[in-house]
Amino acid sequence: MRADRLVSLVLLLRQRGRLTADTLARELEVSTRTVLRDIEALSAAGVPVYAERGRHGGFALLPGFRTELTGLNHDEALALLTAGSGRGEQAFGLGSALASAMRKVVDALPESHQATASDAARRFLVEPETDLLSRRAVTDDIPEATMVEIRRAVLAGHKLRVHYAATGQSPQWRTVDPIGLVTVRDRGYLLATRSGADRTYRLSRVLAAEELPETAQRPDRVDLDRIWRERCAQFLSGDHIAVLVRVDPKRREELLGSAVAVRTAELDADGRLRLEVTFQDLRHAEWALWQLGTDAEALAPGALRTALRDRAAAMAARYADT
């Protein structure tokens, strides 16, 4: 539509300064004649666009001209400010870029909307560090230089070398084909393939990374949401054991630190958490719950309850008075 093209023309001149009619025509994908007609329409509407003759001439806006033709209304700007006001600054090392973008969003608003949108955004809180149960969120600590290399390789479609410390193994260098980045509950993951096989890497376990010049072997188009669902299903369908457990909220992080994954979580009427968690096997589950003592109770499966009962009975017998 012509209105959209006029807005784009003004924004091009604002962002890039003086531009020739031919350059504007290429950017807008129209003819030079159309650009000249659009320039006349803007001038007639009061937009201070002027022409400069000569070898380095072109069209430009008067210095200091501000436009409110960004297309952002109050609620759209509020949505962006709210999204940026949470803990999104932790995602993929883009904190400073996010802060800068939020400042630009506010600056792009009409002056009459700037104060109200900023004040409204301060009244929304997204994903605070603690919840009502006083549990602090645990975020991954990823060196900025490492995150920059990973992000560049993902966006450029280049191969990536990572120095990765898998659980229970010595760190090793691996060359992968990056597909995308995912953040879930403040934990970041790199989805990739290695020698054609699917691989998922926890970003906090990447000790160093190097973007390589070689092109990554990956599809041009990707559906990260579908890939993530498939990998989660594959992960949970392995030789793991699902455990239903009630736990004191104060010990939640300790339990989750030893579990492989969390499937569901809800709060019981008595204030305890009811969680469905996954462990590597029965022995792993027994060990993890034993560490929590009476602050946790395994509700299922029955084999785990029996194992914990037998262990408690053996311990009681060991320390019984003779």
From TrEMBL:
Q: Does the keyword Transcription regulation apply?
A: yes
Q: Where is the HTH deoR-type domain?
A: 2-61
Note the SUPFAM superfamilies from the entry. Winged helix' DNA-binding domain
In terms of domain of life, where is this protein from?
Answer: Bacteria
The alphabetical list of record keywords is: Transcription, Transcription regulation
Q: Which Gene3D superfamilies match?
A: Winged helix-like DNA-binding domain superfamily/Winged helix DNA-binding domain
> Which PANTHER family does this chain map to?
PROTEIN PAFC, PTHR34580
Q: What is this protein called?
A: WYL domain-containing protein
Can you name the source organism? Streptomyces violaceochromogenes
